[in-house]
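Morning run. Coffee first, then this:
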Amino acid sequence: MMTVLLGAGPAAAFDTVRCQLADGFDFPCGKPEGTGYYKARGFWPNGHLGEDWNGSGGGDSDLGDPIYAIGRGIVVQSEDIKVGWGNVVIIRHVFREVTGKIEMVDSLYGHLLERKVKVGQMIEKGQLVGTMGGNNGMYPVHLHLEVRKNLTIGMNRSKFAKDYSNYHSPTAFINAHRQLASDFKKYDVPINTFAPYGGELTEAQERVSGATSSAANTASGVAPSRGFTRTGRGLTIPVINGPGSGYPAAGKPAAGATSASTAPAPGAPGPSTIPGSTLPTPPADPNAGKGDFWSRLKSKIANGGVTTGLDEK
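And here it is:
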């Protein structure tokens, strides 16, 4: 671990760890292609900020199913947050975009039955990080997956813009980054960037908003960004979007990725099949209309089994 002094003005120390680049990203259940699982609920800005994944067996038959890291990285949070979250794991990934630029994202795995990793642990793609749960019965069993551009959100989503400035559509991100260029070098990755649940960011944490600097793209390839900046709507990691990036411009779908990168109307479930993607078409749920995810969720809401928390899924 090393300590970096960030920005101008009063000195603010910030810790980093060294981590190799992710060489690509896979799906978090039924690895690597999501076999035997489907999206019960998709991503849309200002609505559902992640994806809910279910097993194709129906009901809560997926309770305890293994959840895997989508890519190589370091665990920056592993905690029972309780409220609307339950057991949560967050992994930070540093990777080389197709443009050659070094970027970082956080992947969040929520409502877990068990957590299998600890903060500071280096994780490989496909490594077990936890098991599928429903926040101790608050929700029908499922995995809530998020992919964040902003490294300071942690468990305080209400303090940040709920749109593409801070979030990726998970399936669109994974499909656009299945295989990436990697090397044996290690890069500095900032850690301790989250405020406690319900708390405020420190000055140092507020500075974690820039992508890795051009120095990280030199032959040495080991220098992180030292010049962090703050934006008016929050703290964001700039993302290379548009032509040549392999990823859609903010708010625009990539060709052939209709379900993951478009935003369904709030309150509507995201499509569970993805034309042109590597995800399989889910089989019909044998419990559809009886014990399927949405029917069970609506029943829990009607019976008061789901409560509204400050940062509920």
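The first helix runs from residue 170 to 176. Good start to the day.
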